[in-house]
Amino acid sequence: MTTAGTSTGRGGRTRGSRLAERRSTRRSAAVHPGLPGGTYQPLSASDVQRIADTALDVLANIGFSAVTDEILDYALAKGAHLNGNGRLCFPRSLVEDLIANAAREIVYHGRDEQRTIRSGGNRVYFATSGEAVRFVDPDTGSYRPSTLLDLYDFFRMGDFLEHIDFCGQQVVATDICEDPRLHSLNIAYAGAAATTKPFSISLAEASTVGDVEDLWDSILGAPGAFRKRPFAAIGVCPVVSPLRFGPDTSGVLCEAARRGLPISACTAPQAGATAPAALAGALVQSTAEALAIVVLVNLINPGGPVDFGPWTFVADLRTGAFTGGGGEEAVLQAAAAQIARHFQLPGISAAGMTDAKRPDYQAGYEKGMTIAMSALSGVNMICESAGMMGSLMGCSLESMLMDNDLIGAIQRSLRGIEVNDETLSYDVIERTVMGPAHYLGAPQTLSLMETEYLYPKVGDRTSLSEWEYRGSPDLMTIAKTRVREIMGSHYPDHLAGDVDALVRGRYDIRLPTQMMRSGNERWPRV
User: Fold this and answer.
1) Distance between CA atoms of 492 and 75, rounded to whole angstroms?
2) What is the pLDDT along the chain (526 residues), one digit of tens a residue?
3) Would you tell me how many other CB atoms lie within 10 Å of the CB of residue 524?
4) Residues 6 or more apart from 110 whose CB is under 8 A from it?
5) What is the DSSP letter of 369?
6) DSSP labels for 312-323?
7) Which 3 state secondary structure label does DSSP give 272?
8) Rounded CA separation 385/352 (Å)
9) What span, in angstroms and rounded, lies between the C-alpha atoms of 312 and 64?
């Protein structure tokens, strides 16, 4: 039997070289960000039209309650009105005019330009998010309150993983939640320090939006620099279902819109609880709520960058509990992608929200089903796609790592099969059947090895005998080891020393510098 460092295969590479490849951050040539989707369509064209028309009727006739004076000032001045029940209604003509001039694409600038993404059309990107309040401990598997340092770790894991295109906020920094300004500034810093990929953070108070923009300007080195080339989005859920505006979160939306900042906005009704139990009815309500968000942004800043996010969730009607991993959730998120394309708006979905408490078989099939269906439906950005556990209550680094393999496989399915004279391979077939009778050493096989095929970084494709020789490790054991390797070594230096010193001099940053470099006690080098 050959040793682990000398066995060969896959074109003569040693096992050691293959391990080094799996540890690399280099993106595979077999897939790339923004692959086109749209082949899966759970709704017919007439179904989409009926849902869209009914949603417009909801906006025109039922309207919204809990409307702030700020929203009223913008809406009434442009043709909205209060109905007999005191609810704010948006006439169909007003909604259609505003949507016609809404942004069709949102450009999120990576601070590494190669990481810039353009959300719109039928391009599909994969993002993290979730705002869980608990961190899943990699040693014990127990759930504990999440911290600012945990958030930083999730951001830098997202920075490392090749199939994550956008790093949304995955956990809440519960250790500094008592002060909204302190909390906002620190999570804004954590994202910028940990990744050059575009990212988002969620803000709870309008007064913090300007502070966060100022911090990001400081990182770029000039007032107004962030607004010119925004590398992050303001995340917000400004609607309280059914059909009410949240006073604080709608204030965040309005302030971000006034400043022209990218807004990652969604609404999150639960079918059977805060939306109709009929899935079509739930889609109608969530579409109306998501359209109201887009309308409000465009009342304030015509053409302003905002996502269309009808995140229709599901309640388990036996208990009333939130559930994110069922077939109903998968088809609702896919249908929302069709509705986004109907209105030609940049759409976001929530997929990957397993109800499993461990990264087990249930987690695998729930994540695989929901993420794949959203991707194939052509939604522009799939949020919640990596790491989320326990119905969005917790987040796991091991799950995030394994989900990266899953996302890569889904990206490969999006790419599909290229059919042309070369790939039809007539000459290759003829030469092979007349010669060696196998394709293993064929020039075509070797040339396509890294461009036609994608290989998992964590998943085990070794032979049964090799697996047994290595001690029969399960996937979770492998993932835990790999997480420790990444967390112990991948400390990005995305803020130059003078920039970091400037930011820390201006703001009360609570991330200890010693925890942002290799060799700390939290993640010893492996």
Assistant:
1) 45
2) 333 344 444 444 555 555 555 455 667 888 888 888 888 899 999 999 999 999 999 999 999 999 999 999 999 999 999 999 999 999 999 999 999 999 999 999 999 999 999 999 999 999 999 999 999 998 889 999 999 999 999 999 999 999 999 999 999 999 998 899 999 999 999 999 999 999 999 999 999 999 999 999 999 999 999 999 999 999 999 999 999 999 999 999 999 999 999 999 999 999 999 999 999 999 999 999 999 999 999 999 999 999 999 999 999 999 988 999 999 999 999 999 999 999 999 999 999 999 999 999 999 999 999 999 999 999 999 999 999 999 999 999 999 999 999 999 999 999 999 999 999 999 999 999 999 999 999 999 999 999 999 999 999 999 999 999 999 999 999 999 999 999 999 999 899 889 999 999 999 999 999 999 998 999 998 7
3) 11
4) 116, 117, 196, 197, 198, 231
5) H
6) -EEEETTTTEEE
7) coil
8) 5
9) 18
Q: Which two tokens stand for residue 339?
A: 């509705």
For residue 201, CA distances in Å to 171, 205, 233, 441 come to 10, 12, 7, 50
Domain boundaries, the chain: 99-415, 417-448
Cα 30–Cα 34–Cα 38 angle in degrees, nearest 5:
105
Which residue bears the tokens 């579409």?
287
Q: Return the CATH number of 99-415, one of 3.40.50.150, 3.20.20.480, 3.40.1050.10, 3.40.50.300.
A: 3.20.20.480
Contact in structure between 389 and 357 (CB atoms under 8 Å): yes
Rounded Cα distance, 196 and 220, in Å: 12
User: What is the rounded CA–CA span in Å between residue 461 and residue 384?
Assistant: 27
Asked if residues 484 and 526 have their Cβ atoms less than 8 Å apart, the reply is: yes
CA dihedral sign of residues 473, 478, 484, 490 = positive
- Complete DSSP assignment for 148-182: HHHHHHHHHHHHH-TT--EEE--B--GGGTT-HHH
Q: Which amino acid, one-letter code, is at 507?
A: Y
Determine the Cα–Cα distance for residues 293 and 362; give it in Å rounded to an integer. Answer: 34
- Helix then strand count (H, E) for the chain reads 19, 23
Rounded-to-integer distance, Cα 312 and Cα 324, Å: 10
- pTM score of the predicted model: 0.92
